[in-house]
Amino acid sequence: MKGVGSALVVAPVNKQVRVAVVDDHESVRLGLQAAFTNAGFEVVSTAASVPELVETLESRELDVVVLDLSLGDGSSVTDNVKGVQALGAAVLVHSIADRVASVREALAAGAAGVIPKSSATSTVIAAAETVARGEVLNNLEWASAIDADRDFAKAQLGRREREILHLYASGLPLKLAAQQLGIGYSTAREYLDRIRAKYVEVGRPAPTKV
Questions:
Q1: Are residues 33 and 108 in the same domain?
Q2: Are 76 and 210 in contact (CB under 8 A)?
Q3: pLDDT at position 98, please?
Q4: What phi and psi values does residue 155 have, to the nearest 5 degrees?
Q5: Is the Cα torsion angle 66, 69, 71, 75 positive or negative in sign?
Q6: Which of 12, 20, 32, 35 can pair with 45 through a Cys bridge, CB separation 3.0 to 4.6 Å?
Q7: Helix 77-85 vs helix 100-108: angle between axes, to the nearest 10 degrees?
Q8: What are the residues facing 92 on neighbouring strands?
Q9: What is the pTM of this model?
Q10: Domain limits for position 183
C-alpha cells in the first residue's frame, strides 16, 4: 500500500475485486451491492456491523470494505477500521460530510481513503478500485479532514508539507497546487504520502464511539 505500511491483500490486475459493504442502513447496503455487482465486482458480503461482517465471511477473503462511520452500535471508529484491516482488506470510509472528527480517527487508524455519502455510485466504485489496488485515496475529503487538525499540522509537518496540504484541502487540484509552490507534481504527491504516513504514525485522534 503506497504511503502507509499496512499489509493488505492487493487485487491483481484484471482480477474481480472482492468487496463488502458495512452500513446499518439496509437501503444503503442494497444500493451499493447493486452498483458494485453491475460494475463487475464480487460482492462477498453486506452487514450492519463489523462483527456481523466477520461472522458472515467464514473463510472468504476480501480486497476492500466500504465502511460507514455512523453504525450506531456503540463501537469505536478505530476498532471498526482495525477489525476490517485484520481481515486483510483495505478500508474505504463512506461518511457524511459533518463527521470530520470520525474521519480523522479513521485515517489515523489506517483507512485507505474516505468518500462522501453524497458521491455518485460511480465515484464510490472508482475509489474502491483504487484502494483495492493497494493505493491510498488522497482526495479533497482526506486533505480537508487532516488540514483541520491544526495541532498536528503545526507539530508534525514541515513548511512545504503544510503548504501543499492547505492548498489541496482548499480545493485546488494537486497539479496546480504544485505549480503554485514551484514544485513538481510527483514531489507534491510524495508530500501527501508523507503526511498520511505521519498521521497514521502519530495516531492523532482518541477513539470515539459511533
A1: yes
A2: yes
A3: 66
A4: -85, -30
A5: positive
A6: 20
A7: 40
A8: 66, 113
A9: 0.78
A10: 142-202
Residues 167 and 94 in one domain: no
Same-domain pairing of 64 and 130: yes
Euclidean distance between CA atoms 194 and 4, whole angstroms:
9
The whole-angstrom separation of Cα 97 and Cα 117 is 8
Instruction: Please give the radius of gyration of the chain, using alpha carbons only, rounded to the nearest integer.
Output: 17
Mean model confidence pLDDT for the chain: 86
Cell of 103: 474521519
Same domain, 60 and 36: yes
Long-range CB contacts (within 8 A, 24+) of 69-73: 69/93, 69/94, 69/95, 69/99, 69/102, 69/103, 69/106, 69/210, 70/24, 70/95, 70/96, 70/99, 70/102, 70/210, 71/22, 71/23, 71/24, 71/210, 72/24, 72/210, 73/24, 73/48, 73/49, 73/210
Domain count, the chain: 2
Residue 204 pLDDT: 53
- Written as one string, the DSSP assignment of 14-31 is TSPPEEEEE-S-HHHHHH
Integer Cα distance of 104 and 100 in angstroms: 6
Query: 124 and 188, same structural domain?
Result: no
Q: What pLDDT, in 10s, does the model give residues 113-141? A: 999 888 999 999 999 999 999 888 888 88
Our measurement of the distance from residue 171's CA atom to the centroid of its chain's CA atoms, rounded to an integer in Å, reads 18
Helices within the chain (DSSP H only)? 26-38, 50-57, 77-85, 100-108, 121-132, 140-147, 150-156, 159-169, 174-181, 185-202
Locate 208 and state its grid cell.
470515539
